[in-house]
TrEMBL record:
Pfam hit, one: SBP_bac_1
The name this protein goes by in its record: Sugar ABC transporter substrate-binding protein
Organism: Micromonospora endophytica
Entry superkingdom: Bacteria
Family to which this protein belongs: Belongs to the bacterial solute-binding protein 1 family.
InterPro entries documented for this protein: Bact_solute-bd_prot1 (IPR050490), SBP (IPR006059)
Record key words, sorted: Signal, Transport
Length: 427
């Protein structure tokens, strides 16, 4: 069992324990929840998590949940390593694109038998496509958060440099270039992170919907890579055009998703495509507030919108838990309307339709914005396929993108090389 501390900082290889045994001696099941959220941090989502955990612990006497916070780039490896030694968490938070990796790694177990009756009663309230959490026909997790990727812009910076918010991708290129030039290259006009850190996530969060916007996919229905298509080439060409025009420079080679968001906070990034789940924390930074404006990502032509990936966080049952009934009770509590409303108050896009009628949403200062995000998800959301080795693929793709954007590597050939390598190595 892990120690009694509510939060444990995790480095590689530092976690191996299992929280399934009754270490309290009072007949209460000690459940370990491993998640990327930190209840002691400044992110409003972490504070909502703490309220939910405290509420669950106070609501019943059969189980007590303890939270361990692990950096999002490390948590998957930590969970899989711990599970393979007979330990690991009872409850694990998994980002949907990494779900197949956990199934292959044996760190979680199916929850169909537990969820069947609950889904029969509640499933119609789900906005999130639950089938996306199934692997080989088995339900491996339940989504608790929806997220969309939006055009972010710092209104104060656009006003300062006399730039109008873009309504097409070409306008976004021009606007970003104008801001960077006018600032003497001190402000990145439009940031697309090309660092391979954090699994190349920032790049993939742009390349995937752009490819979809041009009619293609990253992974085809048969599981093979399919991005070296006309659509993929157009998407990569659009990303390169931001660099060619001067909307960003080589500074983006050291930017991942966190660095892009930190740049928006600091006022050194004027525009980006970033997630709805990061908006509340970003606005809480000094000098940001209402200066951060979000809108659906504009498409190729005026009036069109780029598709947004359908992704989000899920809860799964650890493979080695000795208390599956109590774990399931916590998952249900986490997905209750009341808990979802707490997350909505932290700027999270709820997965249940009925939550949007709750005061936490209807009376929120950004209520109209939350509804716009919901409608964008419903109208333009795109479910992607995330194979077990998606992290390796995304890392290889962003490395190739670096060469295509800055070193003159041919786009069709660069994409084809990564695609062929991936398909040849498929398991």
């Amino acid at each position: 069992m892990l120690g009694a501390a509510t939060i444990a900082a995790a480095g590689t290889g530092s976690l191996a324990g299992c929280g399934s045994d009754d270490g309290s001696g009072d007949g209460v099941a000690d459940l370990q929840l491993w998640t990327f959220l930190d209840p002691t941090g400044t992110d409003p989502r972490g504070k909502a998590l703490q309220e939910i955990v405290d509420g669950f612990n106070a609501s019943q006497s059969a189980a007590r949940v303890t939270v361990t916070s692990i950096n999002f780039a490390k948590i998957d490896g930590e969970v899989i390593r711990a599970a393979n030694t007979g330990g690991g968490p009872d409850i694990v938070n998994i980002y949907l694109p990494q779900l197949a990796q956990h199934v292959e790694g044996g760190s979680i177990q199916p929850i169909d038998d537990f969820a069947k009756d609950w889904l029969a009663k509640t499933g119609s309230d789900y906005l999130f496509p639950i089938d996306s959490a199934k692997i080989d026909g088995e339900l491996m997790a339940l989504p608790w958060e929806s997220r969309v990727w939006l055009l972010w812009y710092r209104k104060d910076l656009l006003d300062k440099y006399g730039v109008t918010p873009p309504t097409t991708l070409d306008e976004a290129v021009a606007a970003g270039a104008a801001i960077r030039k006018a600032s003497g290259n001190k402000v990145t006009g439009f940031a697309i992170g090309l660092s391979e850190q954090s699994l190349g996530a920032d790049f993939m969060e742009k390349f995937d919907p752009l490819t979809a916007g041009y009619g293609g996919t990253i992974i085809g229905p048969d599981g093979s890579a399919s991005f070296a298509s006309d659509a993929g080439v157009q998407a990569m060409t659009m990303i390169k055009s931001f660099g060619d025009a001067g909307a960003f420079g080589r500074e983006v080679l050291t930017m991942g998703a966190d660095e892009v968001v930190n740049g928006v906070k600091a006022g050194t990034v004027a525009m980006a495509i970033a997630g709805s789940f990061r908006v509340a924390a970003t606005r809480s930074a000094d000098g940001v507030g209402a200066n951060l404006v979000t809108t659906p990502v504009p498409g190729v032509t005026a009036g069109s919108r780029l598709p947004t990936a359908v992704a989000g966080q899920t809860l799964a049952m650890g493979a080695n838990t000795e208390h599956p009934e109590q774990v399931w009770a916590f998952i249900q509590y986490y997905l209750s309307v009341e808990s979802q409303a707490k997350f909505a108050g932290a700027g999270v896009l709820p997965v249940l339709r009925s939550v949007y009628d709750q005061p936490a949403v209807a009376q929120a200062s950004n209520a109209a914005e939350l509804l716009e995000w919901r409608d964008y998800l419903a109208a333009d959301g795109k479910v992607s396929v995330y194979p077990a080795d998606y992290s390796e693929l995304s890392t290889n793709l962003v490395k190739a993108a670096q060469k295509m954007v800055f070193d003159g590597a041919a786009i069709p050939a660069g994409l084809t090389e990564v695609q062929n390598q991936y398909n040849q190595n498929r398991k």
